[in-house]
Write a structure and sequence with these properties.
The complex is a heterotrimer.
Chain A: E1 2-3, H1 9-23, H2 25-29, H3 31-55, E2 58-63, E3 69-73, H4 76-99, H5 106-125, H6 129-147, H7 153-182, H8 197-200, H9 204-221, H10 230-237, H11 240-266, H12 268-271, H13 275-297, H14 301-321, H15 325-356, H16 367-370, H17 372-386, H18 392-405, H19 412-439, H20 448-452, H21 462-480, H22 483-496
Antiparallel strand pairs in A: 1-2, 2-3
Chain B: H1 7-22, H2 27-55, E1 59-63, E2 72-76, H3 78-97, H4 99-105, H5 111-130, H6 134-153, H7 158-189, H8 194-207, H9 211-229, H10 238-244, H11 247-273, H12 275-280, H13 283-304, H14 308-328, H15 332-361, H16 369-372, H17 375-378, H18 380-394, H19 400-412, H20 416-444, H21 464-482, H22 484-496
Helix pairs in contact in B: 1-2, 1-5, 2-3, 2-5, 3-5, 3-11, 3-15, 3-21, 3-22, 5-6, 5-11, 6-7, 6-11, 7-8, 7-9, 7-10, 8-11, 9-11, 10-11, 10-14, 11-15, 13-14, 13-20, 14-15, 14-20, 15-18, 15-19, 15-21, 15-22, 18-20, 18-21, 19-20, 19-21
Chain C: H1 4-22, H2 31-54, E1 61-69, E2 72-78, H3 80-103, H4 110-129, H5 133-152, H6 157-186, H7 203-208, H8 210-227, H9 236-239, H10 245-272, H11 274-277, H12 281-303, H13 307-328, H14 331-362, H15 373-376, H16 378-392, H17 398-413, H18 416-444, H19 448-454, H20 474-479, H21 489-507, H22 510-523
Antiparallel strand pairs in C: 1-2
Helix pairs in contact in C: 1-2, 1-4, 2-3, 3-4, 3-10, 3-14, 3-21, 4-5, 4-10, 5-6, 5-10, 6-8, 8-10, 8-12, 10-13, 10-14, 12-13, 12-18, 13-14, 13-17, 13-18, 14-16, 14-17, 14-21, 14-22, 16-18, 16-21, 17-18, 17-21
The chains are: A mainly alpha, B mainly alpha, C mainly alpha.
Chain lengths: ~500, ~500, ~525
């Protein structure tokens, strides 16, 4: 093991902590120790992550064979994803302290929650495709218990579906990895690509096929059509904290993988203008539209949010598929924004369920009387997702649209923004009714149930409300002051495009 | 003229005289005389073989003082010597092994008749091996048939009689055809002695005359002897015959009798008709086709049998097919393989029949699968003997069957057209053999099930003769499997000087 | 004459087994003594093998036993590839025997069982050390014979049927392999069938009869492939799952089936030679057969609900990974095939032993009975988890290394069919994930509805399937669910060692791969 050992800490600490939590009997019995340790670890994790990001460098962990080495390194992309992960993971962790008190077997949840944090960090820090793949697989395996936490029959089935889709996607991607390993010296992430022209001679068709397999394969995690089917099944049955991170961050792992493959291994120049790019764009747009449509029609809140994720992550993928700097910046910014927003939305949904037991949107009339503060935060986040300026979603959508128009990809240049626009309308249609009906339930709303159950003004506890508030505020502020973020993203874009 | 050179003649005469003498002896004495005679004749054959090995060539022995081409002759060479020894050993062990069963099955008064038949059988076999004269061959063929019938019939149970009649009819058909062929040959060549006949045949072939009669001769003699040796599709009499005779008789009939006829056929091919003529006349192809058909069909019939003796008999049909296939390959190497398989099959089939007897003993004398279940535990030695025999049939390495397969396969490599069919049929046949033989072996070692009928009282232990015979047969098999090289070499040398 | 050490590991177990058969050791009091004797013998034998391998393989140390017929001799030779197989078997056998002691504790006729079990060790060693095709063929046939009583052991109707099926397939396969033997002998450039890296055919003569020889190769491939459960001759393997677990695990996951694969490797690389075979229609044909088997085996495994049969189908599929590597006919392909031979041996024996442990402790044989056992048998299921992840191909485990090798070799070879093979392997990996991980997930995370029911009537009505052995551990079952725990040390220690080995190979594959690449380079 040679290199900057500091990089190892953000990986190892949460994993070890998670194992300790799972194994230690004291955590099973004493809730205080459990939650205390978890939050402490997450805070420490945040600190360590920033330290690692600041110190930079790289680290070779294990050398399996000459070709297969596990290495970590820090570059701008890692910084972006890692910072996002650490911050949000802490917030959701704090939220879980209160939320999970309504669930059973909490220690299991926290244990795996911590482990996944470490694994995800490893994914963010991956320096080559092999390391990425290793952590990708590990992430699937370690997040599985989060999905089937409740262990109802549906949960176990959903968990298995998640597993099989993920594994199928991973193996699709592996096909591409096998091919790429044969046509390049190594698979280290290098801005602009690392393949050797001589080795590729005559294998262009195979290259495109491999790239396609990898995008569809990694796109499984990101909920891209056609392998998105696990998402709407898994999210409703998981606890809200798990759904949040699944939607908000774990899907981004798929995005990260695609970024690395397209921009740092294969190189965008090899893909521009090919059939593969066109199919990719088509798939993303299809997902954007389809996700929004299905969300609009879905009555169960968490499932609606799941479909929303399907749609929104494909905004990101659309931006990436255009192979254009502006769209790239838009995509990456949407990674951040959507993560923040979706977390807020899911945490809200969790709060609603925990406080009132309501799972369907139509039940949530008059929610404003129950938890106005929470609903207000929800509204901010929802508006941000729709793309109302000056909220963050507007910024990312702007960059995406302008990037599309200037991308030179033929028909997609204007079809894309059109789809985005339609989707935005649908987004409003599926997110805002909650706000409207919550605050303005209508004259005929009597609110007996709220009275009867004494729910008036029953906000969720501070543990839950504070993270939601922070996230909503972030959705607002990042929209108002996007400058530094955007310039960082533009520098990344310049390096790869 | 060495004294040793008289041995072939002595052995034939000795066998015949023993038969005659036995007619006035009682059962037991006849039996002992028979055994002693077999041993002595085998020793004589050994002497002949040694002599021929030493001199490196075959010799002819004039019978009486009439020289060729008018007198009668015996010819002895390496091949004849090896074959005679082999036949003698098998015969000895078969008689020994079935000793007590023979005593049981046959009436006390008729026992000596049995041994007369044995003696006559041996004498005719030896004569067929050594003779150089066609008509003598015919005479002894008939004697063989009669002896065979006698052996079958002696049991005097219902099915044996019908089996014997069937045997007689088929045999006579074969003999008749043989005789017709002989007659035409005599007509055309004017000789009955083999070597001079050969010269005439060569002249005729060279001149191109009598083409059709030559073909007819080959066909008729071939078919005649084929019927008698049980080549498919002339095999119908075999399952009944082997199935219903006494153990010794089954072993002798299946192991030796058919082989004697085949040997005669080979002799006629080499010494009278000329092997090259045969090849060019496509006769060998006919034999080949019948051979491979028999290999497959015999096994298929065997699979359907539930009576294990009939199953073993059908297996013989398949094995005879192997031999004819080897002959039909049309190369000298193929003939070597065929002759080796004669030895292999004699030894193995006799082993199977004798071991089977041991198994029937502990299964209430029943012969079907269900009764035999678990017999391997009740009579371990017989079980082992049967297993060795079965494995040899399947071609397990280190046993004789493997060498046979190897010889057949490598000889097939020399004929480009017949290469693939031979090899594939060999493989298929091995698999089929495995199915019915090894199925029985597994049954032998299965546990009896509650629904199986209980086994009636049977004899406690097989007689020592049976056990000794089984052990010796296993030994013969192993010798052929492990130390085959000298034997094959002897066969090869013998065939070289056979013509 | 220190080459005698080549013959000892073969004959020592065989003779001991024969002695055991006839020795009146059936009585109970002899149990411990017998166990000590057998284990001591097996360990001694493994040490002999280690010593033989340690003596080096340069120059090809050989020992001619005797001459079977003219140029055909029975001889042993220790070369690198043989030492890999021999070493693998020698390592696994003592552990498997240890496991078998515990497993067969309550059985009758243990004497017969262990006699044949030990004999199989010697015979398998004979295959590994065989120096020419005839010797390989001899021991191959003997392997069938000596493992048959083990398959038949329960003596139930199913067992007899399974044994018959096994026998017919094996003998039939050997009959076709025999064809290959004869032709190799006939066209050999040295007049014998001694294994030579790169093949021993006289290429001039061989080219004249090209198509015939290719056809014969295909026949021989399928013939040996019967033991390697190649489609369509795989039927016997799932049926043989009725045998006691030590038999299915060691024999049908390691000794017997790997012998089939090993024989094919010898046939392809050391007899016919890749120079003759590469690029011919024969290569495509056998590659397609291997690929079909990979896909077929995995798919059938998903559909199968009897646990051991599921693992049997998994074996069918995984063996064809090895064969696929072989059919690439490149040095890298051979190395990849060998790496999977080693990796899969550990993975599958670990998985089977876990299944056996569960069966031994609780009598459960079907997938749907296993809910929640993960907590009750942590060591067992921990090892099963390792094995499952490895079989699926998760990195850091052995299975990933061998899959990586196979895929790299396939892409490297440049053949279109080879790349299709990679896709098939990945499909199979997905199926493997499904059929292995379903068990794991349900064992560790039983769904709550089941959890309620499991405490009560979980036992009854679920044993309507094939009873594995008569009267297995009835005591444990009588005590009910609560008594299900991890088995004794004799069973858990081997399990843990196997799991550790899987991890070790997965994390530190370099030394092994160096050796295998060298072998590939010599012979490919």
């Amino acid at each position: 093991m040679e290199g900057n050992m500091i990089l190892l800490l953000p990986l190892v600490l949460p994993i070890l902590a998670g194992v300790v939590v799972l194994a230690g009997k004291v955590f099973r019995e004493n809730r205080k120790y459990l939650t205390g340790l978890s939050v402490a670890v997450l805070v420490l994790e945040l600190v360590l992550t920033f330290q690692a990001l600041v110190s930079g460098g790289s680290l070779t962990m294990i050398r399996l064979t000459d070709q297969l080495t596990l290495e970590l390194h820090i570059d701008q992309v890692s910084r972006l994803f890692a910072a996002l992960t650490a911050a949000v993971w802490l917030l959701v962790g704090i939220y879980s302290v209160s939320y999970m008190s309504h669930e059973e077997e909490e220690h299991r949840f926290f244990g795996y929650y911590l482990i996944v944090a470490g694994v995800l960090m490893g994914l963010n820090f991956s320096a080559n495709l092999i390391t990425l793949y290793v952590f990708y697989e590990l992430m699937t395996l370690t997040s599985l218990p989060l999905v089937l936490h409740e262990r109802s029959r549906e949960a176990v089935r959903a968990g298995l579906k998640y597993l099989f889709y993920s594994v199928a996607g991973a193996f699709l991607a592996l096909f591409g990895i096998f091919f790429l390993a044969g046509v390049s010296e190594n698979l280290t992430f290098t801005a602009g690509g690392v393949l050797s022209d001589s080795a590729l001679a005559g294998k262009e068709g195979l290259l495109l096929t491999s790239a396609f397999c990898m995008i569809v394969g990694f796109g499984t995690k990101a909920g891209m059509f056609p392998l998105h089917g696990w998402l709407p099944t898994a999210h409703p049955v998981a606890p809200a904290s798990a759904s949040a991170v699944l939607s908000g961050l774990i899907t981004k792992a798929g995005v990260l993988a695609i970024i690395r493959v397209v921009y740092y291994v294969i190189g965008p120049d090899r893909l521009r203008g090919t059939w593969m790019q066109n199919v990719w764009i088509l798939l993303t747009l299809l997902t954007v539209f389809m996700g929004s449509m299905l969300a609009y029609k879905e009555p169960v809140m968490k499932k609606r949010l799941a479909y929303s994720t399907v749609s929104q992550v494909s905004y990101v993928l659309f931006g990436l598929s255009l192979l254009n700097p502006t769209a790239f910046a838009g995509a990456l910014s949407h990674v951040v924004f959507h993560s923040v927003i979706k977390h807020a939305l899911f945490l809200t949904a969790g709060a609603i369920i925990v406080t009132t037991g309501w799972t369907r949107v139509e039940q949530m009339r008059g929610l404003g009387q129950v938890m106005p503060k929470t609903l207000a935060c929800y509204t901010v986040a929802a508006l941000a997702l729709v793309g109302i300026p000056p909220l963050s979603g507007f910024v990312s959508k702007w960059y995406l649209a302008s990037g599309a128009l200037s991308s030179g990809t033929g028909v997609w240049a204007w079809v894309g923004p059109a789809v985005l626009l339609v989707s935005a309308l649908l987004t409003a249609g599926y997110l805002l009714p909650l706000t409207i009906q919550g605050f303005f339930p209508g004259h005929d709303f009597k609110g007996e149930e709220i009275e009867k159950r004494g729910l008036k003004g029953k906000e969720p506890s501070w543990w839950m409300l504070a993270p939601i508030g922070v996230l909503a505020a972030a959705a607002l502020l990042l929209g108002c002051f996007p400058g530094s973020l955007i310039s960082m993203l533009q520098s990344i874009a310049a390096s790869v495009l | 003229m060495n004294f040793v050179q008289n041995f072939p003649f002595f052995s034939i005469i000795l066998a015949m005289f023993s038969g005659i003498v036995s007619s006035v002896l009682d059962g037991r004495k006849a039996r002992n005389l028979s055994l002693a005679m077999i041993a002595v004749t085998t020793a004589l054959s050994a002497g002949t073989l040694l002599f021929c090995l030493g001199s490196g060539e075959s010799y002819t022995f004039m019978m009486g003082h009439f020289p060729a081409p008018w007198g009668n002759e015996i010819r002895a060479g390496i091949l004849e010597g090896v074959t005679a020894i082999f036949f003698g050993i098998i015969m000895f062990l078969a008689v020994l092994g079935g000793l007590d069963h023979t005593a049981e099955d046959v009436e006390e008064k008729k026992l000596n008749l049995f041994y007369i038949m044995i003696d006559l059988m041996l004498s005719s076999l030896l004569a067929l091996v050594y003779t150089n004269d066609l008509f003598t061959a015919y005479v002894f063929v008939e004697i063989n048939t009669i002896a065979g019938c006698g052996l079958i019939m002696i049991r005097q149970k219902g099915r044996s009689m019908s089996a014997a009649i069937r045997y007689m009819i088929m045999s006579q058909l074969g003999s008749g055809l043989f005789l017709i062929g002989l007659s035409i040959l005599y007509d055309v060549t004017g000789h009955l002695l083999m070597s001079p006949a050969r010269e005439s045949v060569e002249l005729l072939v060279a001149a191109g005359s009598y083409r059709i009669p030559m073909l007819v001769i080959m066909a008729v003699i071939g078919v005649g002897l084929a019927i008698k040796s049980g080549l498919y599709p002339f095999h119908y009499w075999i399952p009944d015959t082997y199935g219903y005779a006494t153990p010794t008789a089954s072993a002798v009939l299946s192991g030796l009798v058919s082989k004697g006829y085949i040997f005669l056929l080979i002799k006629i091919f080499y010494r009278v008709l000329g092997y090259d003529n045969l090849v060019s006349s496509q006769m060998v192809n006919v034999l080949y086709v019948f051979g491979i058909t028999g290999m497959v069909m015999g096994s298929i019939h065997a699979i359907h049998e539930t009576d294990t003796r009939r199953m073993t008999a059908y297996s013989s049909v398949a094995q005879i097919g192997y031999i004819y296939m080897g002959m039909g390959l049309g190369t000298s190497y193929g003939m070597v393989a065929a002759v080796f398989h004669i030895f292999t099959h004699s030894a193995t089939k006799a082993l199977l029949f004798i071991s089977a007897v041991g198994l029937y003993e502990v299964s209430g004398d029943k012969k079907d699968y269900i009764s035999l279940r678990g017999a391997g535990y009740r009579n371990p030695l017989a079980g082992i003997g049967f297993t060795v025999g079965a494995l040899s049939m399947v071609g397990f390495p280190m046993l004789s069957g493997f060498i046979s397969k190897l010889l057949f396969a490598t000889s097939a490599l020399e004929s480009p057209h017949k290469m693939l069919p031979t090899i594939i049929v060999l493989a298929v046949s091995t698999t089929l053999n495995a199915v019915y033989f090894l199925r029985l072996v597994i049954t032998l070692y299965s546990r009896r099930r509650p629904e199986d009928a209980p086994i009636p009282e049977t004899r406690a232990r097989s007689s020592w003769q049976l056990r000794l015979a089984i052990l010796c047969f296993i030994g013969v098999n192993l010798v052929l499997g492990l130390a085959s090289q000298p034997i094959v070499q002897a066969i090869r040398d013998g065939l070289a000087m056979f013509g | 004459m220190n080459e005698i050490i080549l013959a000892l590991p073969v004959f020592l177990p065989v003779l001991s087994g024969v002695v055991m058969l006839f020795h009146p050791w059936g009585r109970k009091e002899w149990d411990r003594k017998r166990e000590l004797f057998i284990e001591g013998l097996v360990v001694l034998n493994s040490l002999l093998v280690a010593a033989a391998i340690g003596g080096g393989t340069d120059g090809g140390r050989r020992l001619v036993l005797f001459r079977l017929y003219s140029t055909l001799t029975i001889m042993f030779k220790l070369d690198s590839m043989g030492s890999v197989f021999a070493g693998l078997v020698a390592f696994l056998w003592p552990l498997a025997t240890l496991y078998a002691f515990e497993y067969m504790k309550h059985e009758e006729r243990k004497n017969t069982f262990f006699a044949f079990y030990t004999m199989t060790y010697g015979i398998t060693m004979g295959i590994a050390l065989a120096g020419n095709l005839v010797t390989l063929y001899l021991f191959y046939e003997m392997l069938t014979l000596v493992t048959l009583p083990l398959v038949l052991f329960p003596l139930t109707t199913e067992a007899v049927r399974a044994g018959r099926s096994y026998l017919y397939y094996s003998i039939g396969g050997a009959a076709f392999a025999f064809i290959g033997l004869v032709f190799v002998l006939g066209f050999s450039s040295v007049g014998t069938t001694e294994f030579m890296a790169g093949g021993m055919l006289d290429l001039e003569r061989a080219m004249e009869n090209r198509n015939t020889l290719l056809f014969v190769y295909v026949l021989a491939f399928f013939g040996f492939g019967v033991k390697a459960a190649l489609f369509p001759c795989y039927r016997w393997l799932p049926k043989a799952a009725v045998a006691p677990t030590p038999v299915t695990a060691l024999l049908h996951a390691v000794a017997v089936v790997k012998s089939g694969a090993f024989a094919i490797l010898r046939l392809t690389f050391f007899s016919f030679g890749t120079q003759f075979l590469r690029g011919t229609w024969a290569q495509w044909m056998v590659m397609a057969a291997a690929m079909a088997t990979i896909a077929f085996g995995s798919t059938m495994a998903v559909r199968e609900v009897h646990w051991k049969r599921r693992l049997a189908y998994s074996t069918v599929s995984n063996l064809s990974y090895i064969l696929f590597g072989a059919t690439l006919m490149t040095p890298f392909g051979l190395a990849a095939a060998l790496s999977h031979l080693v990796a899969h041996a550990f993975m599958k024996i670990c998985a089977f032993f876990c299944a056996g442990a569960v069966m031994h402790q609780s009598g459960k044989t079907y997938i749907y009975e296993l809910d929640g056992l993960g907590k009750k048998m942590p060591v067992t299921f921990g090892c099963l988890l390792v094995s499952s992840l490895s079989l699926m191909g998760v990195p850091l485990f052995a299975g990933f290394i061998s899959k990586w090798n196979l895929a790299s070799a396939a892409f490297d070879s440049g053949s279109g069919l080879g790349i299709g093979g990679v896709a098939v392997i990945l499909y199979s990996a997905l199926m493997t994930g499904i059929y292995m991980m379903t068990v794991i997930v349900r064992a560790y995370f039983p769904s709550l509805a089941e959890k309620v029911a499991a405490g009560s009537g979980g036992r009854d009505g679920q044993n309507a399937g094939i009873p594995e052995t008569a009267g297995t551990d009835g005591q444990d079952r009588k005590n009910g669910e609560a008594a299900v725990t991890d088995p004794g040390w004799k069973m858990t220690v081997p399990l843990v060692i196997f799991a550790a080995a899987i991890l070790l190979i997965g994390l530190c594959p370099a030394p092994l791969m160096r050796l295998l690449t060298m072998i590939g380079g010599e012979a490919g």
